[in-house]
Design brief:
10 helices; DrrA1/2-like_C; elongated; Rossmann fold; alpha/beta; 2 domains; four-stranded antiparallel beta sheet; six-stranded mixed beta sheet; Alpha-Beta Plaits
């Protein structure tokens, strides 16, 4: 089992004086998968990433990265920090070659890979441009290439979509999928649940330094309630009498002046039985929509109570 894992944390804690940033954290990331590392600000994500990278040591517990410990695996890791920073006066290709050299890649190999990757990202005309002359999106692409040029086995991305326009966000999603297809493992944190929902096989959620969830997207969504949207001349009593309905709130009127209702289903219940009963009772249901919970809904439920 251990050989299938790119990353394993076992009972990891981190304290800074009297403050406990991470508390008894355990989770695993399988090789070749894309794992979302999610949590509100101050949840302990950055402290955890610093320990994974060997930049700080856990106060307790054990971290295993690519079968090794801490800095011994560092050259096999690619890291894109949330706070971007490149040498502004250096040329784009020179920055990439320099940072690749720190990971043990020969300059000739790094220069060839850098040129190929810059061209693939639409930056072929800017290979010899200084970083300070590039747009924010362009410089973020250069930094991303810098963290991938040494062909890492584990890629850690901290808020990688921050500041990117929708087109570049889509391009980055494509890069992340390609990394996984090529066998690399990706761990990334983001506040934008739509990205995690489109990309991840599994997610880990933290709040106040503690893990509140680890599992698949399907398992995460199951923690959030399902909803049924109804349009019709209905009373709250009519709706609450339907099987599986937990609550019903009138939210307004349709364009035709017909009441709109937002109904929360009881845990484990689907909309099917409620709708079937409504039609059998000849209730005035003119339109309905069963809404499955999103990862955002699950995130609010799983982290909300602890975060409050």
């Amino acid at each position: 089992m251990a050989s299938e894992l790119a990353l394993s944390l076992d009972g990891v804690s981190k304290t800074y004086g009297d403050f406990q940033a991470v508390r008894d954290l355990s989770f695993e990331v399988k090789k070749g998968t894309i794992c979302g590392f999610l949590g509100p600000n101050g949840a302990g994500k950055t402290s955890t990433v610093r320990m994974i990278l060997g930049l700080s040591q856990p106060s307790a517990g054990k971290i295993t990265v690519l079968g090794g410990q801490g800095s011994r695996a560092l050259d096999r890791i690619g890291f894109l920090p949330e706070e971007r920073g490149l040498y502004r006066k250096m040329k784009a290709i020179d920055v990439i070659v320099f940072l690749a050299g720190l990971k043990g890649v020969k300059a000739s190999v790094a220069r060839r890979r850098a040129k190929e990757m810059l061209e693939a990202q639409g930056l072929g005309a800017f290979i010899n441009s200084p970083i300070q002359s590039l747009s924010k999106g362009m410089s973020q692409k250069v930094q991303l290439i810098s963290c991938l040029v040494h062909e890492p086995e584990l890629v850690i991305l901290d808020e990688p979509f921050s500041g990117l326009d929708p087109v570049n966000q889509q391009g980055l999603e494509s890069i992340i999928r390609d990394l996984s297809k090529c066998g690399a493992t990706v761990l990334f944190s983001t506040h934008v649940m739509q990205h995690a929902e489109r990309l991840c096989q599994n997610v880990v959620m933290l709040t106040k330094g503690r893990k509140v969830f680890e599992g698949s997207l399907k398992q995460a969504r199951a923690a959030a309630p399902r909803y049924l949207e109804l349009e019709g001349q209905l009373s709250q009593a009519d709706i609450l009498a339907l099987p599986g309905i937990k609550s019903a709130t009138e939210t307004g009127l349709s364009e035709d002046g017909v009441p709109l209702w937002h109904c929360e289903l009881e845990a484990g219940q689907s909309a099917h039985e409620a709708l079937k009963a409504a039609f059998l009772r000849n209730l005035d249901v003119r339109r309905f929509e069963a809404r499955e919970p999103s990862l955002h809904d699950a995130f609010i439920v799983l982290t909300g109570a602890e975060h409050a």
